[in-house]
Amino acid sequence: GKSTLAAALSADGFRYAADDMAALLAPAGHLMPWPIPQSVKAGSWRDLSAAYPQLDDAPVGQLGATQTTFLVAQDSAWHEAPRAVGALIFPHFDAAAAPEAVRLRPLEALQRLLLDRVWLGDLTASKNVERFLAWLEATPAFAIRYRDVSQARGLIDQFI
To answer: What is the reported pTM?
Structure first.
């Protein structure tokens, strides 16, 4: 659901910066674009086909038991300047749940980051830890739960 949400938001005017991996530049914590192709599972193709007609002809591969294809960012995405992070969003697709956005405390955001294969760089230097924690303290974080991308967009619009 995260890649599908990122693709839908990109089609809706948001700038695509990264999928599955993002780099923050110290000391200000600006997001460095890393627009690798987005892995889109077969269940999302119908929802994205109007915005991405190339999905109809894209090569299909297998990721375990799931069919997947990739959306490739425009070359210009690689040349975007680093930019400030407005918020951390931890999305969760749940077809049965009511849409919800919950503001996370910095410690909760850190816990979620650590559970998602985050690499925090050289933490042997206390200044790096202090910078990162100060950035995290200043950056709003939200957990959102949604049934479809339009609901997710509505939730995101509330805090951007």
So the answer is: 0.85
